[in-house]
Amino acid sequence: MTKTIINTAAAPKAIGPYSQAVKANGFLFVSGQIPLDPVTGELVYGGITAQTHQVCANLRAILAAENLQFSDVVKTGVFLADMGDFQAMNEVYAQYFSAQAPARACVQVARLPRDVAVEIEVIAAYPAK
After folding, report:
1. Predicted TM-score of the model (pTM)
2. What is the pLDDT of residues 23-63, one digit of tens each?
3. Hey, which bits of 25-129 come out as E strands?
4. CATH number of 3-125
5. I need a surface site. Which of 51, 67, 80, 116 has the fewest CB within 10 A?
């Protein structure tokens, strides 16, 4: 198996011992993104709606680094600090994953890094050549 580490300055730097994404066997595995501004490194506040938009912007930047789009995503994992935020998160999520939505899991967790409201990870498939 060939494994390639993917990093882009257009998304927040990893805040631990992990990569933004890893390319392997025709897939891109994108680490969970939290609502960090990639320029300032600061958290984006403003509630679940603003945080979900920032998370999706970070995901878009990592996908774009590999010439991929949200339509190439086959699986997502959504982690919420409060399942009461599900509807608002889902409304934002639907703006990014509209056509041929990927498979998804969504769970409430006890706590997220930096006490954010949402974290999302994705797996994308590279188009067949």
Report:
1. 0.96
2. 999 999 999 999 999 999 999 988 999 999 999 999 999 99
3. 27-33, 73-80, 103-108, 118-125
4. 3.30.1330.40
5. 67
